[in-house]
Amino acid sequence: DKNSFAAKANYEIIGIEPGAGLMKLTKTAIDDYKLEDWKLVEGSSAAMVAELKKAIDKKEPIVVTGWSPHWMFSKYDLKYLEDPNESFGGAENINSIARKGLEQDAPGAYKILDQFFWDTKDMEDVMVKVTEGMSPSEAAEKWIKEHQDKVSEWTKGAESGNGEKIKLVYVAWDTEIASTNVIGKVLEQNGYDVTLSQVEVGPMFAGVANGSADAMVAAWLPGTHLEYYNKYKDDMVDLGPNLKGTKNGLVVPDYVDIDSIEDLK
Ligand code: PBE
Fold it and tell me: Which parts of the chain have pLDDT scores under 70?
């Protein structure tokens, strides 16, 4: 029954990086649904997936913080718990954001970043390749080769670079590993000298705002990263969505017999 689900799951929701927007949303959900008995466990995206896999192998109950797009939905049978209070908000977008001055300093790179737009299926293609063992840069290269039509829309009308340095910052979320590697590779193929720098979420926003980084393609809006966005928005150039229709929530394996966050009580 439901109580035994909570007990068997140790009253633990397996979370990710402490600074992630999803962690903040989960804390809101814990308040909204009065789940004060539950603990949100901090860790990393990789550790969360490892815990999930361990539980699934033993068919044990588990609740994790989850988001889409994510390859875990193609690898495992999972479901989002219903969220009648809408604590996690609705579908969101992922926006690209550039530093002020990038348009003047590297107009071609700016234009490519501005025109970068793909869909969930594209992103998942890259993510699945990476989980199957390909390196992110290899997976990006392969995807680009197979999707020249799409890529040529991003580069349309963009002047080529002359080896100018472009530094992209990102967090090690599977979604952002995929997108950052793809757009980085496209910039490289168009004449830029690209560095990808993996940071925490706060420094990612701060870096673009203070100009120590050129751009990022990892801002989940309007909800997940709202706080960071509001803090830095006057010092950055928002290039709009590169992907539409993300989702955040609590995720469980299909085999558990609860369906709603309310059932965790
Ligand atoms: N995520 C994936 C991030 C954004 C990308 C949902 C884990 C978060 O800040 O929660």
Answer: 1-3
